[in-house]
Structures are given as C-alpha cells and as structure tokens.
Amino acid sequence: MLVEFAMMHAWLVPLLPALAFLVIVFLTRPFEKLSAIIAVGSMAIACVIASFAAYGIFTNHEYTKTPLVYAAKWLSLGMPGVTDSLMVHVGVQLDPVSAMMMFMVSFISTFIFLYSVGYMKGDPGYSVFFAYLSLFGASMLLLVISSNLLQMFVAWELVGLCSYLLIGFYTHKISAREAAKKAFVTCRVADFGLLLGLLALQITFGTLNLVELGEKIHNFQEYTSIGMLTLIAVLVFIGPIGKSGQFPLHVWLPDAMEGPTPVSALIHAATMVVAGVYLVGRTMFLFHEVESAMQLVAVTGAFTALFAATIALTQREIKRILAYSTVSQLGYMMLALGVGSLTAGMFHMWTHAFFKALMFLAAGSVLTALHHKADVWEMGGLIKKMPITGWTFVIGGLAIAGIPPFAGFWSKDEILVATLAEGHYVLFAMAAFTAFLTAFYMWRMIFLVFFGDEKPENHPQESPWTMTVPLIVLAVGAIGAGWFGTPWYNVWAEWIYFGEPHHGPINYGAMLLSIVLAGSGIYLAYTMYLKDAQKKRARKLAEWFGPVYRMLYNKYYIDELYLWFNHALVDGTARLFYLFDLYVVDGLVNGIGTFTKSSGDGLRVFQTGRLQNYALIFFLGVLAVAVLVTFTGPSAASLVLGGVK
Amino acid sequence: METSIYAVVAFYGLAATILGAATMVVFMRNIVHSVLFLAITFIAMAGLFLSLDADFIAAVQVLVYAGAVCIMIVLGIMVIQRTDMNETNLFNKQIMAGAGLTALTVAFGAIFAGRTAWVELVAADAVPANTVDAIGALLLSKYVIPFEVAALLLLVALVGAIVLARDEEVQANADN
Amino acid sequence: MLTISLTHYVVLSALLFSIGLFGVLTKRNAVAVLICIELMLNAVNINLVAFSKYITPLDFTGQIFSIFVITVAAAEVGVGLAIIIAIYRNRLTVDLDNFDWLKW
C-alpha cells in the first residue's frame, strides 16, 4: 500500500524540498529554528517516500527491463497531428538506477541537513542557507527521477545555480565569490556542449524521452550516421566533464571548497558532482553504440583519476585534499562507465557518496573545532580530543583507500576487475597506481591531522550531537554500503546493469593487488608522517623532487594556463572586437548620425522660417501642379498627385 | 461681338490705370504712397466692373475696398509705423527669385491662355439691365446659407481682430 | 482689335495677379504684403465678374461669388492688420525678414 503510493507519487520527493524552499523564503525566514526544522523535516519525509519507492523497485525484477515511467505533457509546439512537432514531457522514470540514486540523495541529504543545523549555528544567513539547501535537494532529486533529458537539463542547470549560490554563501569573502563565479562559468562552458548535444538528439531522433531515445538509438542507422552519433555523444559528454570535474574542466571543484562544509559534502562530493556520472549512466545506450566515445570516457576518467591524485599528494588544506580526492574518485566512476560497466560506476558512486560525505563532514567538524584553520601541517593528535570525528574519519580513510571489508574496497575492486576484463591494461595500471596514491595521500592527511603530537595552540572540542550523529550514520554506510556488491554475493549487479548482468569469475589476483597497493600506501604514509616525527623524509623527498613537487603543489599550473589563455585569447579577441566595435559598429552608427546631421544641415537651408520663402516655394509647387494638369490631363495628373479620380 | 469705341477706350484706359497703379503699389518706397495707389487701383477696378455690367459689384468695390479697406490699412499704418515714412516699403532679398517666379507665372499663364478655346465658351445672352434685383433675390434665396455664414464670418473676424489687437498693458493702465 | 472680349479681361486679371504675387513675394513690410494680397484677390474678382458676364450672364454666379470674395477679403484685412499690430507690439517691427521664428 505505502510502497504502491510511494512509487506512483515519486514526484513528491523533489516537490517536498521545493515547497520547503518556498516556505522558508517567503514565510519562515526570520525564524531560524523553524526554517531548519522545515528543511530537515521535508527532506526526511522525502527520504521516507524515496525509501518506499526504492523498496518497490528493488523487489520486482520487471523494472530492470522496463522502467516505471509516468509523464505529463509539458509543452507542445507545432501543428497538432504533425509527427515532427516538438513535444516535451515532464515525468518520473523509476528503475533501479534512479531509485538507488533517489534514495541515496535523499538519505545523505537528510543527514547533511541535520549536520548543518549544528554547523551553521550563529550564521547570519541561517534560514537562507536552509532555503538554498532545500532548493538544491529538490533540483537534484528532480534530476535523478527525470524521464526526459530536457527536464534533466533544467534540473542540471538548477543544481548548478544552487552550487553557485552555496559556494558563494559567505558573500563577505572575496575568495568565495570568486570561487562561485569560477564554478558557474566553468560549468556553463560544459553545459553549452551538453545543450548542443541535447539539441542534436532532439533534431536527429525527435524525442528526448529516455526510453524512446534508448529504443531509437539502438537502431540509430535508420536516423543518422555513426559520425553524427559520435559527435552527439562527445557533445553530451562535455556536460559531465564540467559537472563531474573531469580534466580539463576540474578547476572549479577544488575552489568550490570555499563554501560551507555541508555544501562541500553534499554538493561537491556526494550528489551534484556525480550528476555527470549519472547522466553518462543514463545515456549509456548512446555511449554504448559509439566505441570511440566510450574510449574517450574511459581515458578521460582514468587520466583524471591519476592526475587529481598526484595533485592531492602535495596539498596542505584539508578540504582541498578531499576535493582533489573527489575529482580522482569521479575519474574512477567515469573509467568504470567508459569500460562499459554501469554496475561498477554506479556502485562506486554509491559507496563514494557515503565515505566522501563522511570525510567532508568530519573535516567540517575539525574545522569548527579549530576555528577554520585549514592547514593539515598545523594540526595533530586530534583523535584524543575528538574521538567520534577522528574514528569516523579513519573509517572513511580505510574505505577510500580500499581496505576490506570497507565499502570503497568492493566498488574499487569492481572497477579494476571490469577494466581488466575489457582488456584495458594501461587504464588498469593507471587505476591501480591511483589506488596506491589515494591510500597514501589520504593517510598522510589522517596521520597529520589526527595522530602524532598535539599542537599546544589548538584547543579542539568534540562537536554537538547534530554533527556527530550524521557522522556515525555515514560511517555505518562507509563500512556496509559495499556489502551489496561483494564478488561472492553480488546483489548489486543483478539490479543495476546495462545490457545483461554479468558475473565474471572472482578475480583474486586483482583483489590481492588492490589490498597490497592500499596497504603499502598506508604504510608509506605511516613511515613518512607518523613514525618520523620530524617529517625529515617527507621534506627531503620534496627537496629531491623540487620542480615536480612545486608543479604538483601548483596543480600543474592549470589555473595559470587558463588565466594566460583567457588573457591571450579571450582578451585578445575581445580587444580585436573592441576595435571592430569602435570603428566599424560605432562608425556605422556615427555615420548614420553624421549623415542625418549633415543632410539636416543641408536641408536646413530650405527651413528659413521666412514666410515669403515658403510662399515662393509653395507657389512654385502650385505652378508645377498647374503645368502637370494642363499638359498631362487631369487623369494622368491624379496618378502622380493622388487624390480622387 | 462688336464693341463700341467708348467701351474699348474705357477698357484700355482702365486697364492701364489698374496695372500702372498696381505696379506703383508694389514699387513705391513709401507705404503711404502705396496705399494711395491702391485706392486708385480699386477705383479703376470699380470702373472696370461697370464696363462688365456689374454695377452692384462696382458699388461694393468702391464702398468696401476703396473706402473701408484703404482707410483701415491707413489706420493700421498709423498705429504701426514711425513718423518718417520714407523707406518704409522696401524689397527683401529674394526679389530676383520673386521676379523670376512672377515671370514664369506670366509665361505659363500665356501658354495656358493660348490653349484655351475662349470663343467656344462665350454665351450668346446679354446681361440683364438690372442686376441688383436679381443678386438680392439670389442672395436671400439660393445663397442664403453662404450669405448668413459670411455674416457670421464677419462677426468672428470682428471679435478676433479686437481680441488680437487689444493691448493688454494699455487696458491694465486704463483700469488703474 | 476693337473688340473687347473675355480674353482681354483674363489677361488683365493675370497681369494684376502677377503684380500682386510679385509684391507678396518680395515686399518686406507686412502691411505691403497684405495690400498685395488684396491686389491678387481683386484680380480674381475681375475674372469672376468677366466670366459671369461672358459665360453665364443670367445666373450671376460670378458676381455673387465675388461678393463673397470681397466679404472674406475685408475680414482678412481686419484680422491680418490686427495680427500685424499684435506682432508689432511684441517686436516693434513689421519687417517680415525678422519674423523667422517658424524655424525654431
């Protein structure tokens, strides 16, 4: 009964936070407690509905083949009855992928909203923050359950807007404002590609409904060539490159950490940034048909994973390290999708949401305790004063490093196995090396922050229950979220897959390699940052590899490159266009003005204002008319002069 | 149609007077002299009307034009002009253009006149001896509405002229 | 030569009209322009009366028309002079060359 209701009313899931947004903005903004209760409460109810709907989906294998879709006509352009007329629907599409995603987003959102209650205490924009969060939750859930790519695009832009608003939430900080702008503009560049891709899809296939599109693209030869389809796939992939922080548009994501920590956890780790992965997963039928696009996705993902992991090695700010780790893990997910394993990609997205949200929230807890001192080198030994934060962070660290039985191990293993099974050995090597780096830089941070000597100038305190409860819940997720997809008991692969579910043989070699790499990464971090209290080796290593270290610390100078590029190309062309504007456009406008003025000056001679001048010309006209009438006859004259015949 | 020699002499004499006096009106440098020649033109015109068997129009011409209009203009000049009346009626700068246009008008008038079949237009009947009776009857029967409108027009012109010409400062001073 | 026909009157009228036109176009004094307009109106009257005599001698249309012309001319002189007086009071001149405010 309840399950039935939840499945048929899944649109309530995004609607409730949207209503919360409206209520907070228009009614309860002055009442901070009430606003927080409304936001958390609406998201909790949405989560309950989402859970029931997900339960309904995950108990009936029918839905893996035919998704539950219900839609309303949104707008219809063109003639009725004409097949080419544009029809746009809004609707809900529930299948295991979207149900999992809907549950995950609402579940994590609920706990991050709860965490924000404590974290944002005393902030002047308390209610506004919850309004934004609710709007974000609504947009993200709308994106997840969209049955239609245009609807998804609208939600996609809405989450982008929320991201912008929340990154720049501390409007008094210049860096936050700049970061918000950077995020918005970077994503806009990518969204343009996505928009072009969607337009091309609509033009080529005449629909944007996911189900229809899936069927039509399966027989795409009837509609278009493989070249066109490749172009469409690449254009569509540009959107996820921006949204999911893939190289080369990853630059906004680390800067986005200027926003409040719950925002970083919710938007820039667990949900919004995986929207790109989700979009690729949803349009898997498109990428599946285009071999080269798949390879592009895989290579982009693997490269991003390695690239971001190397940057994370040298960063000093706690949230920045986590941000690069997010970029790296998103690369993993793309790699999984690129090698054709929707199962592995979605699985890693699922586990990553838990442990990365957990780590961000724990980092937020640390930052609150240390009054927003972010440099990991100035922390140490915090686990004694903040046991809950510390141990949950350690759980997150074990999960992301890939130590069994924590969640990250299973999903990462799934990706490595899938890569190997498809025969991408280079990509496998990159992914495996990235796993080693991940374990190293994560545990470098953990050892520096939570272990070792306490710093006397720090006076940390454990955070209130609203902050620690979400940590504990997410820590449970970080431990157990991966048990759905172990090689021995892989319930995940039976529900979430593209094409046919596949059960490869259990690859103990890959598993062992992954454990060894993670373990050695952690051990290396241990020897360098915990055992060696003076950190001599770390310093020496940085000196040996001076240029490399500096390059990594400066993030491969990508930002500088973009700045230079912007300076040289954009400003250069702008200057060119400025000159064009100055001389051609303005010249044209001024020319028209000058022409008018000078012709006015010329005609002014006739505008003497003197009565007799006018009389003279008037009589000349009379004479001309008289001559005309006399010599051409009245009828011909009336042709020239007009008037009644 | 034969015309008596007196009528011919009268026409040419009157025509010469009219044109000569009109030319003097235009070319006199003193405005008062212009008005004097204007009166001569009007009176000669009345004579011309008599030769056209329009004795009522001739009378009206003398009464209205030679009498009322000329006197009014002289009064206007008295109100307006300075005491020295020399050089009060000069030409402006577009005299050449005006002359050219006038010459053009005359030339085209001649051309138009040459193209018109005057003889065919002329009616056989003669004008009745007594015109005043007929005009009076027509004015109060067939043309009564234009006649009344003309009366109204004169009234409006009268009031308008008074309003326009009234000096409000003088009026204010008179009130004090 | 010894016959005075309609043509004679029409030519006379045309000449008088041209003289009046010349005056209207070239005189500086506003009163003089008014006078010349009277000349032009009189030229029209000659035409009307001559046509009346030669073309419709029994209808008196031309004569009655010229009566109205005279009426209107009288009114026109009255109002015109009043306007000239009003302008003169403001500008202390009746020189039409100075009355070029129309161009502003």
Question: How would you summarize this macromolecular structure in one to three sentences?
Answer:
By secondary structure, chain A is mostly helical.
Give the topology, please.
The complex is a heterotrimer of chains A (645), B (176) and C (104).
Chain A: H1 2-8, H2 12-28, H3 32-57, H4 62-65, E1 68-77, E2 86-94, H5 96-119, H6 126-145, H7 149-167, H8 174-205, H9 210-218, H10 226-243, H11 252-255, H12 261-270, H13 275-282, H14 284-289, H15 291-312, H16 318-338, H17 342-369, H18 382-385, H19 387-401, H20 407-421, H21 425-450, H22 465-480, H23 491-495, H24 508-531, H25 536-544, H26 546-553, H27 558-604, H28 611-641
Antiparallel strand pairs in A: 1-2
Helix pairs in contact in A: 1-3, 2-3, 2-6, 3-5, 3-6, 5-6, 5-12, 5-17, 5-22, 6-7, 7-8, 8-10, 10-13, 10-15, 12-17, 15-16, 15-21, 16-17, 16-20, 16-21, 17-19, 17-20, 17-22, 19-21, 19-22, 20-21, 20-24, 21-24
Chain B: H1 5-27, H2 31-51, H3 55-80, H4 95-115, H5 118-121, H6 131-139, H7 144-165, H8 168-175
Helix pairs in contact in B: 1-2, 2-3
Chain C: H1 6-26, H2 30-54, H3 61-91
Helix pairs in contact in C: 1-2, 2-3
What does this protein look like?
The complex is a heterotrimer of chains A (about 650), B (about 180) and C (about 100). Chain A is an all-alpha fold. Chain A has 28 helices and 2 strands. Chain A has a two-stranded antiparallel ribbon. In chain A, strand 1 (about 70-75) and strand 2 form a beta hairpin. Chain B is mostly helical and about 180 residues long. Helix content of chain B is about 75%, strand content about 0%. In chain B, helix 1 packs antiparallel against helix 2 (about 30-50) and helix 2 runs antiparallel to helix 3 (about 55-80). The radius of gyration of chain B is 21 Å and the shape is globular. Chain B starts with a helix and ends with a helix. Chain C has one domain: Orthogonal Bundle (Helix Hairpins), CATH 1.10.287. Chains in contact: A-B, A-C, B-C. At the A-B interface, helix 28 of A face helix 4 of B.
The helix count of chain B comes to: 8
Instruction: Please give the CATH architecture of the largest domain in chain B.
Output: Up-down Bundle
CATH architecture classification name of chain C: Orthogonal Bundle
Pattern of helices and strands of chain B: HHHHHHHH
The shape of chain C is: elongated
The CATH topology of the largest domain in chain B is what? Four Helix Bundle (Hemerythrin (Met), subunit A)
Largest sheet of chain B: none
Integer tally of domains of chain B: 2
**Which percent range fits the helix content of chain C?**
over 70%
Low-confidence stretches of chain B: none
